[in-house]
Specification:
By secondary structure, the chain is an alpha+beta fold. It has a single domain, classed as Trna Endonuclease, Chain: A, domain 1, CATH 3.40.1350. Helices cover 27% and strands 37% of the residues.
């Protein structure tokens, strides 16, 4: 399992332990990708997972910049349109994971309701 896939697996476990209901993973469009989609009550939660083996070049969450957020917004809009999701509340979260070389979590941060506009 590569680092990104491992991070998404760990993030999914973490969020399910917080009673988030898993919807799907790796929703891809030409406009962008959404790593994980969950629901909590009637709120859709779109999750970007960033995983690194080292923070030498910065924290994992710092890799979510303007262009990544723009691609996420386009992918979310497409997901809502194709799944006929009307006025349901939604939010965007980031799960940032730093791993030890053995694949164990060194640091996990969950940022809720980030701005993507």
């Amino acid at each position: 399992m590569n680092v990104g896939a491992l991070g998404e697996h760990l993030a999914r476990q973490y969020l399910q332990e917080k009673d988030y209901s898993f919807v799907t993973s790796n929703f891809r469009t030409r406009a962008g990708e959404i790593d994980l989609i969950f629901k909590q009550g009637n709120t859709y939660i779109f999750v970007e997972v960033k995983t690194r083996l080292s923070d030498r070049l910065g924290k994992p969450y710092e890799a979510v910049g303007f262009h990544k957020k723009l691609r996420m917004k386009r992918a979310i809009d497409y997901y809502l349109l194709t799944n006929k999701i009307g006025q349901s509340p939604l939010r965007v979260d980031i799960v940032s994971i730093l791993l030890h070389s053995n694949g164990q979590i060194s640091d996990l941060k969950h940022f809720e309701n980030i701005e993507i506009d």
